Endoplasmic reticulum lectin
Amino acid sequence: MNLLVILLVSLFKVSSSSSQSTQTLKNRIVYDNARIPVDVAHSLTQQKSELGSFEIMSLNANNEIEPYICHLPVDKKVNISKPVHHFATSELKQTAINIISETFDDDKCTLEFNIQAGYWTVGYCFGDKIMQFHEDLVDFLSGNHRAQLPNHVYVLGKFPNAKPYKQTEIRNQRDEQNKVNLDPRDFIVFEGEFSSFGDDEVDYSTNTQKFIKHTLGNGEICDLTLQPRTVDIVYKCDQDFGRPGIMEIQEIKTCQYQMIVNVPGLCSLEEFRKNLIHENIVDITCKKIDQDDNLSLQEVTYDTFFEYQSPNQGSQVAKVKNEKVDLDQFYINPIGDGFYLGSLKHEYKGDKPYWNTRVIAINANDIDEGDLLNRFGKLFLHTLERKFPSPITINDNIATALQWGDSFIYWIEMYDMFGNFVALFKMVRDGKLDNHEVEFHKISVVDKQSTENFAANLDYFDHPNKDWNFEYFKRNQE
């Protein structure tokens, strides 16, 4: 049985000793779905081990205090020294700019399909422009890029000194005879955490990885602000992403964009690599105490805590209001009206296909519970063929969008921006019908005592198929 692992920044702290620093590091609480009987939890607190100890703690889950049994590793010395700065800031900036130029100076565009709000192909054309347009998946895979709406190829920003042209084309239109000259004064080097929601608040205690930002203006005039579009390009080293290219793009304000671009060459600079502070944070693993379950075990040992790896009997689908997820485990993409879709960055390796690859919804709105179904339902209807993925994939990375001709039973969990479970939605459609109607059900959070009356057929989640969120799916052929 696979575990749903939750990561949160803890309020606990441990003092770390090192010759380089006397900082206090934040630890990280790791929640998982396992439940430990109350008598076992109390016995664990009596265990003595050189590896660690156990404590019962009252922790907040969706504004409710719940008892957890937590494993506290023994104090250990960690090296929290920051990366050695081999360059002065100005020299580091120029070195990073040179690496960026060497990576992308090939007169071509780097394009990513279906990333901006799950609809746009976004193009990064070094020395020329950042653009977005909508195209057919077949055209994208062929490499012969063609906008479905030729008059809707939008320039989000232009590089300084880019030559003017009458018509925007889906290619790099810079003058090949002239070398791209980038002014270091247009770049900013900064460090700290980077958020998918556009919150770049710096936390120097947990991350000193550096990024370099370049702001481009002179984009297409925005219909809403009547001002040119602008885009912040944030270049970073991401060793997991690997290849150079666009990682994500968000519209953080009306017609103001933030694009993250991976530059593997930046990883050669220690300042741009993830530092050792993250690697040395100590995880505190916590499991919920099941106060209704008592097991008279003959022996409880230190290892007993780790042997409890299965959740409650029955379906693992989120339904209790204090269920949580860690949004950092998901790629988060906006779908409109304050809602987002989250897809797992890394598959879980378990025997349940639903949990290995599921997609979740995220509600960033402060709206009444009664209005949630109406708002999310309307969004689903309006964006079905553009932003909601189907289980039919072209390759490992690209899923085709749902179509009105599809027949499906589609389940999706919704969480708030803090990872608290909000509701479970079920959408049903018969694609053979000549209409644009979808049957919607919203199953709200319930108390633990009410799970027996949970109003949903959960057989699918106990025995899911390979189509992750889809209990049933069929693409009807014309």
User: Anything to note?
Assistant: The radius of gyration is 25 Å. Helices lie at 38-44, 89-104, 137-142, 276-279, 304-307, 353-357, 369-387, 459-462. The longest strand covers residues 24-37. Confidence is low (pLDDT under 50) at residues 1-23, 195-206, 310-316, 447-456.
